Amino acid sequence: MKLKNALISLCATASLVACNSISSNTNSGSAANLSTGQTEATVVFIHGAHLRGAAWQPVASELKKAQVTPHIIDLPGRDKKVAPKTITLSHAADALCKRTQDLPQPQVWVMHSQGGAVAHKALASCNQVEVNHLIYVSAVAPVEGAKPFALLNKDDENNYFKGVTYEGGWMKITNQSEYITAFTNTNSKSLQAQIWSQSVDEPAVTGEGKVYLNKAKLNAIPKSYVFAKEDKIISYATQQKIAESIGATQTYHIESGHLPMITQPVALADAIKSALAL
């Protein structure tokens, strides 16, 4: 199945590596210090496909220690009680807008995988929310009519489909062992159990929407990108293309697979704190 035609939603699980450190690059156009003139930063965590919002909890717990007020969003389609064809990218973006407009502002949005597409779709139309920093964690970032996974390569696609199959409107995890093996390199049974507990089938149609976010509007918001260097789902090479395409001014590198919020929450929290100068 070709990427441009596949009804895919990529945010499954990831490989665990021993290193828990991060490296970073900060360009001259780095984002503003959110701690200046602001006692707390309101940080909204946006999960990707095949994941529950609760997967962000370990990172949120770390950030609470640094004057951060975390808000974890569960996007539509986390269970089988909905008709999958109704969970379009527009529907998910509208839900994000509604769930963030009453939170304290301005906000920082931290997006993972397909969550980047949902966030960009919301930014294009949601005028009730002020976002003053975007942090991408191995996330897609489509603009100006692109689909969420337009920049992914064939290896990214092949790795995804090792454990996932399209069935009746869902991207369904049909082989748990292959799913875990494809997206992680850990032998830790406890970590595998944690990953599996946060994994869900994903409405396929979400990944087929188009994002018409104007590049000029995106350029006005400071952006940071956290690379997961061992990611097999959105590979490091793909992440580099995405970060370049959006002009991320700060970049951070974690020796992690696709789910650093589960496998390396402390390192990811450190990257986020560094991006926000907290």
Can you give a write-up of this model?
The chain has 278 residues and is α/β, with parallel strands linked by helices. The protein has one domain (22-275): Rossmann fold (3-Layer(aba) Sandwich). Helix content is 31%, strand content 18%. It contains ten helices and ten strands. The strands form two sheets. A seven-stranded mixed sheet has the order 1-10-9-5-4-2-3, with helices on both faces. Helix 1 crosses helix 10 and helix 2 crosses helix 3. The protein is globular. Residues 1-21 and 27-38 have low confidence and may be disordered.
Compact overview of the structure:
31% of the residues lie in helices and 18% in strands. It has 278 residues and is an alpha/beta fold.
Supply the helix-strand structural class: alpha/beta
Number of helices: 10
Task: Give the proportion of residues in helices.
Answer: 25-40%
Low-confidence stretches: 1-21, 27-38
- How many structural domains does the protein architecture include? 1
β-strand amount: 15-25%
* Shape assignment: globular
CATH architecture: 3-Layer(aba) Sandwich
Main beta sheet, described?
Answer: 7 strands, mixed
Estimated radius of gyration: 17 Å
**Which fold name corresponds to the CATH topology?**
Rossmann fold
CA distance, first residue to last residue = 44 Å
Mean pLDDT level: 87
In CATH terms, the superfamily is: Alpha/Beta hydrolase fold, catalytic domain
